[in-house]
Design goal:
- This protein has 16 helices and 15 strands.
- It has about 475 residues and is of the alpha/beta class.
- The strands form four sheets. It has a six-stranded mixed β-sheet with strand order 6-7-15-12-13-14, sandwiched between helices. Strands 10-9-8-11 form a four-stranded parallel β-sheet, with helices on both faces.
- Helix 6 links the parallel strand 9 and strand 10.
- Helix 4 packs across helix 5 and helix 9 packs across helix 12.
- The termini are far apart.
- The chain binds ligand F0G.
- The site of ligand F0G has 21 residues, from helix 5, helix 9 and helix 14.
Length: about 475
């Protein structure tokens, strides 16, 4: 039997299946454990030591293109569903399952926009700042990149139902993919802590929606126990297969920059899945000889949910070749518990104080020579208004990137003439309340207040002036 490879050549199907099944495996990130598991298991934490798992590849068994722009050939065959997908058109870089299991609903048709007005706002030169609009995905956020991969793994292992904890976007995305596959899905959201657009999606796509009396971190704890007890397939970013899909966001930025890497990637930090995935993507591309230089990464927390910032900048927590100082983390969390701390920010998507991917993120910071900053809500809202006025708009968490970039340029960490790509993670309609309040209540310097007008032609003309 014949099947097509990445460059359209024909290979023997049997060979292809073998290649794909032994080409990928799971591996514990703890160097003192390093246990390996096959991809047919949904375990999500190392059964040996409890640490996070990676998906790893035997690259010599995968036909990876010799250069990145070979992927451009896929545009010619985009009537093939996998070549159309903004995730699977790079499938040799995340080939953990056979093509027949690969799930797509057309994710990843996103654009990278040069935005000179936003550049001016952050004091950068024209032509240097690029905005990657992940809000253009089917469910309106970057999560769809990850869900395409996670649900492919779910199909591969025959999962029948799935669950997640969420600040909103994961639930919307999971619910949409699950509905497309007719799987049952259950979401755990913190009661009153989820933007309306996202809650609306989860309900509309048919997910069973549990509003837990607690915050995201409480939901995250509960969902892990529930999944273990009831055998539900967990699609949070603890799931290493999901993070494989999110690597594609970086591939598309490179693609849209003419197959070149930017100098910097700026990304909001919540549960730290994206930053972890991006670091892994660059590490692998470098290892494969597909890029020469790894971009630096800036991860931006909100001031009201600044665990990563505090641990990295104040407590000097670092990857340390995988031997992360657990005591620093334990002490920090014990202090949060003692103070009954619950995170608060207008950027509800990143309102998280115990990020599950912390250690992978530390690794990504190490790989990318990364930095972490935090920004207050007022600056997030002003930056969001700039993206709305001069770009395609975004939700608050996404705008933290622009606010953080402004600090980094002012500090001289990022040069005004470097090439920077900010990942705008979610669509503006996800959180209409925040936007309406900002403009109506004149909350910031870019508020654009609506004007009350009498139902009278002359008066209306006078008002338009
Ligand atoms: N931006 C948006 C719009 C998000 O929804 C999230 C995370 C992030 C940024 C942070 O990304 O977790 O990879 O660091 N939202 C998750 C959710 C937590 O449940 O929807 P991260």
């Amino acid at each position: 039997m014949q099947s097509a490879t990445w460059d359209g050549r024909k290979v023997h199907r049997k060979l292809c299946i073998n290649m794909q099944s032994d080409a990928a495996y799971q591996k514990c990130i703890n160097p003192d454990c390093g246990a390996e598991y096959d991809c047919g298991q949904a375990i999500f934490k190392c059964p040996g030591c409890g640490e996070l798992l990676d998906v790893r590849y035997n690259w010599d068994r995968i036909e990876v293109p010799k250069k990145l722009n070979d992927f451009a050939q896929r545009w010619r065959s985009r009537n093939n569903r996998l070549d159309f997908s903004g995730v699977w058109r790079f499938r040799e870089l995340l080939n953990f399952c056979e093509d027949k299991y690969k799930v797509t609903i057309g994710e990843g048709q996103t654009i990278l926009q040069q935005n000179d007005e936003a550049a001016k706002y952050v004091d950068m030169r024209p032509g240097c700042l690029y905005l990657q609009y992940e809000g253009l995905n089917p469910s309106g956020s970057f999560k769809d990149n990850g869900m395409a991969a996670a649900f492919s793994h779910a199909m591969m292992i025959g999962a029948k139902s799935c669950a997640c904890a969420s600040t909103g976007n994961t639930s919307a995305s999971m619910a949409l993919y699950a509905a497309s596959l007719r799987l049952k899905s259950t979401v755990f959201v913190g009661s009153g802590r989820i933007a309306f657009g996202k809650l609306a999606q989860a309900m509309d796509y048919g997910a069973q929606t549990l509003q837990i009396h607690g915050d995201f971190d409480d939901c995250m704890r509960q969902v892990q126990d529930v999944c273990a007890k009831l055998g539900l397939y967990l699609v949070n970013s603890l799931n290493p297969f999901r993070l494989e899909g999110q690597k594609a966001i970086m591939y598309r930025i490179i693609e849209q920059m003419g197959w070149n890497v930017p100098d910097w990637i700026v990304v909001p930090g919540g549960n730290l899945g994206n930053s972890s995935a991006f670091g892994k993507a660059f590490w692998e591309l470098k290892e494969l000889g597909l890029i020469k230089q790894i971009p630096r990464m800036a991860i931006i927390n909100a001031t009201g949910a600044s665990t990563l910032f505090d641990l990295v900048n104040d407590k000097k927590l670092a990857w340390n070749n995988g031997r992360v100082n657990q005591k620093i983390i334990d002490d920090y969390y014990a202090d949060l518990t003692a103070r009954k701390f619950s995170p608060h920010t207008c950027a509800s998507a990143i309102e998280i104080s115990r990020p599950v991917n912390l250690k992978k993120c530390l690794r990504a910071i190490n790989i990318t020579n990364g930095v972490v900053r935090k920004v207050p809500d007022e600056e997030i809202l002003d930056a969001k208004a700039i993206v709305g006025k001069y770009g395609l708009g975004c939700e608050p968490a996404s705008a933290a990137t622009i606010a953080g970039l402004r600090h980094l340029v002012a500090e001289g960490v990022i040069g005004g003439d470097e090439k920077v790509a900010c990942v705008l993670t979610g669509h503006p309609l996800k959180d209409p309340n925040i936007t309406v309040n900002y403009h109506k209540e004149r909350q910031g310097q870019f508020s654009n207040q609506p004007i009350e007008a009498p139902n009278d032609l002359d008066e209306i003309i006078k008002l338009i002036g």
